[in-house]
Write a structure and sequence with these properties.
Elements lengths: L3 E6 L3 H12 L4 E7 L2 H8 L6 E4 L8 H11 L4 E6 L4 H9 L4 E4 L4 H18 L7 H7 L21 H13 L6 H8 L3 H13 L3 E7 L5 E7 L2
Parallel strand pairs: 1-2, 1-3, 3-4, 4-5
Antiparallel strand pairs: 6-7
Helix pairs in contact: 2-3, 8-9
Length: 229
């Protein structure tokens, strides 16, 4: 899977550095450019269309929420996550009306950014699917009232098992009608095969997942994981 390309639009160099350092820790994402003004950002967007944009609200030459229309005109396929200290009603309302992917308040933690980024990745991967969408996939993209696409995992997790990643594993398995191999899971949620296998085997021990041996195209048996329904 190719890395998800990110443009960081932030006028504070130190904060932009934090964004980049955090993204370096999340497998599957690459910062391809940084901009400190709206004008600079639009110049970058003339050359490429990043999959994701991390956008500040208070830029030297324009409000981030006012820049969104111009971004969507130049790069309509780019998703936007606002990262800001702004809590004013009119700014939050504009962000909501313009369908930003997420709204993260400063100061924020690595875990907060990671959760937001991984939610984006999961939806991004779902939308790349060219097959017919299942009810579960559609509900994940447009969750109904009273439901959450990432429920808290009802497990006591051992050291080395991250709850956010575990939720992605469970969600992936829940929409794979024919189960999943560790390799396929890793590609779809952006982790290594060995990491995916560790999470899957943990779920097997918790009796939330069962396995079957199937034979691939070259006749070699592979371990496929299914979630109990």
């Amino acid at each position: 899977m190719n890395n998800i390309e990110v443009l960081v639009i932030e006028d504070d160099v130190r904060v932009a550095d934090v964004h980049c350092r955090f993204l370096e820790k999340i497998e599957g994402f690459t910062v391809i450019a940084r901009a400190s003004t709206g004008e600079e950002a639009l110049d970058w967007l003339q050359s490429f269309s990043p999959h994701l944009i991390l956008l500040d609200v208070f830029l030297p030459d324009i409000l981030g929420v006012d820049l969104i229309d111009k971004i969507q005109e130049v790069s309509p396929t780019s998703s936007i996550i606002l990262i800001t200290a702004a809590t004013e009603a009119h700014i939050v309302q504009k962000a909501y009306q313009k369908n930003v992917t997420d709204y993260i308040l400063k100061p924020f933690t690595f875990e907060q950014l990671k959760e937001s980024i991984e939610k984006f990745r999961y939806k991004y991967l779902l939308l790349k699917n060219n097959e017919k969408f299942t009810h579960e996939k559609i509900q994940y993209l447009w969750p109904k009232a009273g439901s959450s696409p990432l429920q808290e995992t009802p497990l006591l997790l051992p050291k080395g098992i991250d709850p956010t990643t575990m939720n992605h594993v469970i969600n992936h398995l829940s929409i794979m009608e024919n189960g999943s191999t560790a390799e396929l899971l890793g590609k779809n949620i952006g982790v290594s095969r060995s990491t995916a296998r560790r999470y899957l085997e943990f779920l097997v021990t918790q009796k939330q997942v069962y396995t079957e041996l199937t034979y691939g195209t070259v006749g070699r048996p592979e371990r496929r994981y299914f979630i109990y329904t």
